[in-house]
């Protein structure tokens, strides 16, 4: 199992924020915000997976 360092987590969040432009939400509904966050995380995971498969 690979050990994840705090720095790797910081880089992941930085990539996540820049990839999905998560600066402001158009809604204040909690379930909508949660759905947007989950969808953006899923899209980042798919992007990373596709990058690894392409190598």
Automatic annotation (TrEMBL):
SUPFAM superfamilies: Ribonuclease H-like. InterPro entries: RNaseH-like_sf (IPR012337). This is Transposase. It comes from Ferrimonas pelagia.
């Amino acid at each position: 199992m690979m050990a994840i360092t705090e720095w790797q987590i910081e880089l992941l969040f930085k990539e996540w924020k820049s990839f999905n432009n998560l600066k402001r939400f158009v809604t204040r509904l909690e379930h909508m915000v949660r759905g947007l966050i989950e969808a953006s995380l899923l899209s980042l995971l798919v992007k990373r997976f596709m990058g690894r498969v392409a190598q």
